[in-house]
Amino acid sequence: MTHTRADTIREFLTAHGLAGATRTPLAGDASVRRYERLALPGGTTRILADTPDPAADLVPFIAIGRVLDRLGLSVPQVLAADTAAGLAVQEDFGDATFTLCLDRGDAPAPLYALATDALIRLHAGFTDADAAGLDLPRYGAGLFVDQVMLFADVWMPLVRGHALSDRERNDCAAAWMAAVEPVCAGPRSLLLRDYHMGNLMRLPRDGVRAAGLIDFQGAGLGPVAYDLMSLLEDARRDVPDDLASAMKARYLDAFPALDRAAFHRAFAVLGAVRHARVIGIFARLAVREGRRGYLVHMPRLWRLLERALAHPDLAPVAGWFGRHLPPPARAAFVIPETD
After folding, report:
1. CATH of the domain at 215
2. Are residue 156 and residue 256 in the same domain, yes or no?
3. Are residues 214 and 323 in the same domain?
4. Residue (of 273, 178, 177) closest to 225 by Cα position
5. Are residues 221 and 193 in the same domain?
6. What is the Cα–Cα distance from 160 to 162, expressed in whole angstroms?
7. Per the confidence metrics, is the pTM higher than 0.90?
8. Which of 72, 196, 169, 170 lies closest to 122, judged by CA?
9. If we measure between CA atoms, which residue out of 141, 140, 151, 148 comes closest to residue 177?
10. Which of 57, 99, 205, 218 has the CB geometry, 3.0–4.6 Å to 51, for a possible disulfide?
């Protein structure tokens, strides 16, 4: 008889005294991870995480979580784990994401201030020793450019009906490198990479611990501007300009020695990288998997990308766009339905 994934999960739960738990699937994100809420007698709940690539997922989640916890930040405690099988039982932070809080009418400024303060705590406390203890990717110009080329490899063929030529692709990579390399020379810290309101949980705790951090297993080491940019230039929701400016000022006031002009340049350039890459990701999900729900965010992503491309430090990339991707092939382009 074939031993299935379901069998492995049942055995794992039984081994940890959770065989009687009621299991309810939770909505996922754009990844292949799966989560279930486990309801135990007496009302206690836990989260079951099912990760198909534990070496790149569960193992770093546990290691990074230990560091974040030491810094005084809230992360789900891992109560049981089988890293070889890619299974873990975690503390349940509930359902109150910052996104849900905003959608139900909570005031935005305190939530964004809390999220910004959590980043301040992280960047103030994270040390070289912490970095040395974590085997994480280092986000320099080369890695950022490799990742943003997803846009060239997914969006451009959709628009043009064929892939870029080698020369066109090389020119694209060179343009991005010219913009990205200078901004990667500044201060670095733990880069959570997907820091937005949907990945923050409102908890009944004091101070920055009221922000519960999740979905940080893909973290790396990189420029300090990246995560604040990810928060304030969110692919999924509009952030008013005055609120974004206030949060940038809040962050910079916490680090008076930081070069403000360099920070703002990095913010703009890394924003363009992220927005272009996410456009490629959402397009790929629509074309390859038929997951078209993310396309509702495309107009916002294009607005953010176009605004970033107007920054002087992105002139090489804006020039490439002007030559190879005229405006009608940008936000106005509609990804066709697939069979």
Report:
1. 3.90.1200.10
2. yes
3. yes
4. 273
5. yes
6. 5
7. yes
8. 72
9. 141
10. 57
